[in-house]
Each structure stands twice: as structure tokens, then as C-alpha cells.
Design a protein that fits this description.
oxidoreductase activity, acting on paired donors, with incorporation or reduction of molecular oxygen, monooxygenase, alpha+beta, 471 residues, Cytochrome p450, 3-stranded antiparallel beta sheet
């Protein structure tokens, strides 16, 4: 007999995963196929946004629905993506009330959720700080931290089980700390930030009910004791770093120090302590969380795709020989790059990009109302049968030849709000993958049931149990 939860929400999705001698279809929910009402749709989306999609949603199409009087528009066509994210960017620049409300407690008015004059003022500052021209300098830090992890992994007892997500989060948190903050984060502080943000994600609702009750801006999240504790764990670490910089104790080359100096030269920027903390927190959380998730998914994919793992190892040997891969090698690591790009296709770190219309508009043949939510969904776009051959298969080779259809591949968003740290994140992912894959084989623990889960970002539910074996 179905439980009350199943009667209200429906059964949990079936997770599909298929193995072949030279193919791998990684874990993803099966198509939603049964009838439901709008209440069930909202309740399912509160659990996980990946549950709700039907077969036809994975086509190049436009679709609208009205949920409790609110218009939701799904744009899953490259031309529509271009219209929303670039052509009419100013009308659709606002993040959804759900995303703004979900992150404002943690990030304040940080760049990721700001808009209007605040976004226009700070975007050039942050973009300059993480500009691709700075990546070679930051790359030395990436080499150093990944090398330290390789040294630690080499001392582990044989068969020692690790949580791959926690390992990759610790790696990327240390990298972003030394580049953004200019000093070592350390294991204790790294786990404070990682655990704090993990707890925060688990507590945040995937739907802002206030929006559907008539509040265009949604309602603030309930700041429960557990949520407050999670935020304080993150803020405690970042606040100390910002205070050190304001007191002149920061590294002269760090991103935060660059922001501090910009404020000193241009007081009109208004980057007070809270604003500096918000931008530092935004860069830190976006920089470490998304890359950690990408690397975790990459290990899962390679663990189940021996032909791809061999190609990675062969390329590293050909390009680097016995020496450790460096940032200078990244342009030559074509297959490693393809693995990361294919990972980002299958598991985009932010799988739903929702925007709120400022004023009435028209997308294709749909009249969009003011305050409507327009959703561009990389999870659907990247698996569209109209854009990709065998869209659910792991095939890094698809990124070795012709580039994807413009506006059909958007793991870092697209248009004016494209992630300013795109080059930083790609370089970091490729380099860390190469440094660790050169020395180790990473294996998912047998019997692990991997399930993608969409909260604020896309992670494997419960992490990823792995073992590492020296090559």
C-alpha cells in the first residue's frame, strides 16, 4: 500500500544506469510518465527538480503552464535561450525569487544574485579579478594543492573508502582560498565551509511558496536554528579573512586584496566590510562548489568507462611523461578537457537557470506576463535529442571535433551573466583531473547506487563513495 508521502507526491523516480562493453549511460531519472496535478508538481519540485520532466521536455521546444495562477515558461531551444539570456537580457536579468531568497542569507547582495546597478557596478570588478589572463598565476596554486592531495592519497591504507565529493570539495576549497584569500584555508576551516554549505543546501527549499501565494518577490526563508548555524560556520571563516585584509594582513596578490585596493582608490564603489564579505563569499562558494561537483562526477564517469580512463592516462603520458602536469600543459590536454566538458554537459553544476520577467514580453509564440518565471534548463538542453546524438551516453569524443550548437551548451550560463570564473574553473578541473589521474585510479565503491540530486547545485545524493589505487 502506498505511503501518505507517495500518495501526495508520487513514487520516487527510477534511476537509470546502463553499462556496455564500450558504452556507459550514467545515472539519471527516468522520464516522468504518470498523471499529476499542480499540487503534486510543486511538491515533486520541492523534493528535486530533476524528478518532474517528461519525455517531450527533452526536445527543442517552448512550453508554458500556469501553477496556482503563476505563469512558468520553459525555454528549451537554442534560439529561445539566446533571446532570454542575451538579446533580451535586461528584461530577464533577475534571478528567480526562489534563487534570490534561497541565497540572500548566505551571500547577501553578492554578484550571483544581484541585478540592476549593483550587478553592473560589481561585475567588471569581479570579472577582472578572475580574468583569464590571471589564470596562469592561479594555476601554480592549483598545481601545488592538487599535488598535496596526491601526496596524501599515496599514504592511504589499501582499500580505504573516501567520500569523493568531500575530497574534491576540500581540494577546490583550498585552491579558491589561496587564490581568493591569499592564504591557506587549512583542513579545519575547509570542513567548516564544506559542512556549512552542505547543511545549507539540504535545508533550503527548492520552491519559494510565497511566490505562488502572490508575492512577486517571494518570501524570505525561515532562518531556523540549523540554517543559522550553517550560515555562521561559513561566515566565520570568510569574515576573518576579510578582516585580515582590511587590517593590512592579506596577501598582496589575492583577489580580496585587489577588491580592497579598488575600494580604497574608488570610495564611491561602496564596498564596505559586508559588501566585501558578500563578494568574497560569492566567489568562494561558486568557485569551490561547482568545480568540486564537476570533478566528483568526472571520477564517477571515468570509473565506469575504462576506455575513457585509458585515453586520459595515455594523453597524460604523451603530453607530460613522468613529470607532474602543469598549467602550461592544459592547452595540450585535449581529451582531459573533453572529459570535463562532457561531464558538464551531463551534470551541469547549476542545472536550472530561472529568470523573472520585469515586463511583458513574447518568447516564440508565448506571451510572457510581468513577474512570470522563465526557465532555461541546462539539464534538459544538454540532453535534448534534437541537439545531441545519444544524449544520455558519456561520450567525451563529441567535444574533440565540432563545437556544440551555439546556445545549446551552457554549463556556465551564457550572455552578459555568463560565469566570470569560466576559464578559472575549466583550467582548475582539467589540471586537477590530470594531476590525480596520473598517479591514481579512482573507483566508485561496488554496489553504490548513484542518484543525481538537484538542490542549489547538482550533486550525487549522499556524496560518492570511492577508493583510490596508485597506478
Amino acid at each position: 500500500m502506498a505511503s501518505l508521502r507517495e500518495r501526495l507526491i508520487g513514487p520516487a523516480p527510477v534511476i537509470v544506469e546502463e553499462h556496455g562493453p564500450d558504452s556507459f549511460v550514467p545515472a539519471h531519472p527516468a522520464f516522468f510518465a504518470t498523471k499529476r496535478n499542480h499540487l503534486q508538481l510543486v511538491l515533486q519540485a520541492r523534493q528535486d527538480f530533476l524528478w518532474i520532466w517528461r519525455r517531450n521536455d527533452y526536445r527543442n521546444r517552448y512550453h508554458q503552464m500556469n501553477v496556482f495562477g503563476r505563469q512558468l515558461v520553459i525555454v528549451n531551444h537554442p534560439e529561445g535561450v539566446k533571446y532570454v539570456m542575451a538579446t533580451r537580457h535586461e528584461n530577464f536579468e533577475r534571478k528567480s525569487p526562489q534563487m534570490r531568497r534561497a541565497l540572500e542569507y548566505l551571500l547577501g547582495d553578492g554578484l550571483f544574485i544581484s541585478d540592476g546597478s549593483t550587478w553592473r557596478q560589481r561585475r567588471p570588478l569581479v570579472a577582472d579579478i578572475v580574468h583569464k589572463n590571471r589564470v596562469p598565476t592561479f594555476g601554480r596554486v592549483m598545481e601545488e594543492v592538487a599535488g598535496e592531495m596526491a601526496t596524501r592519497w599515496a599514504t592511504l591504507p589499501e582499500g580505504r573508502e573516501l567520500n569523493g565529493l568531500v575530497e574534491m570539495a576540500a581540494l577546490t576549497a583550498e585552491i579558491i582560498s589561496r587564490t581568493v584569500f591569499g592564504n591557506d584555508l587549512g583542513e579545519a576551516n575547509a570542513h567548516e565551509v564544506i559542512d556549512g554549505f552542505s547543511g545549507y543546501q539540504n535545508l533550503i527549499d527548492s520552491i519559494n511558496i510565497g511566490y505562488f501565494l502572490g508575492f512577486d518577490e517571494g518570501l524570505p526563508v525561515w532562518r531556523s536554528r540549523k540554517l543559522t548555524h550553517s550560515v555562521r560556520r561559513v561566515h566565520k571563516v570568510i569574515d576573518k579573512v576579510v578582516d585580515d585584509h582590511l587590517a593590512g594582513r592579506g596577501d598582496n596578490n589575492s583577489m580580496v586584496e585587489l577588491l580592497v585596493r579598488r575600494q580604497q582608490r574608488n570610495p564611491e564603489l561602496g564596498l564596505d566590510r559586508d559588501a566585501l564579505r558578500n563578494e568574497a563569499a560569492t566567489i568562494f562558494m561558486a568557485g569551490h562548489e561547482t568545480t568540486a561537483a564537476t570533478l566528483t562526477w568526472a571520477w564517477y564517469l571515468l570509473s565506469n568507462s575504462p576506455w575513457a580512463e585509458r585515453a586520459v592516462h595515455d594523453e597524460i603520458a604523451r603530453v607530460c611523461g613522468d613529470r607532474r602536469p602543469s598549467v602550461d600543459d592544459v592547452p595540450a590536454l585535449d581529451y582531459c578537457r573533453a572529459v570535463i566538458e562532457e561531464t558538464l554537459r551531463l551534470y551541469p553544476p547549476v542545472p536550472i537557470l530561472a529568470r523573472q520577467a520585469k515586463e511583458a514580453d513574447r518568447i516564440a509564440d508565448i506571451d510572457v506576463k510581468p513577474a512570470a518565471i522563465v526557465m532555461v534548463v541546462p539539464w534538459l538542453l544538454h540532453r535534448s535529442v534534437d541537439l545531441w546524438e545519444q544524449p544520455n551516453n558519456f561520450r567525451p569524443e563529441r567535444f574533440l571535433g565540432q563545437r556544440p550548437v551555439p546556445y545549446g551548451y551552457i554549463p556556465f550560463a551564457i550572455g552578459p551573466r555568463i560565469c566570470p570564473g569560466l576559464n578559472f574553473g575549466l583550467t582548475e578541473s582539467i589540471l586537477c583531473l590530470a594531476i590525480l589521474a596520473q598517479k591514481f585510479r579512482v573507483r566508485v565503491v561496488p554496489g553504490t547506487k548513484v542518484e543525481p540530486r538537484c538542490r542549489l547545485t547538482l550533486r550525487p545524493r549522499g556524496g560518492l563513495p570511492i577508493t583510490v589505487t596508485p597506478r
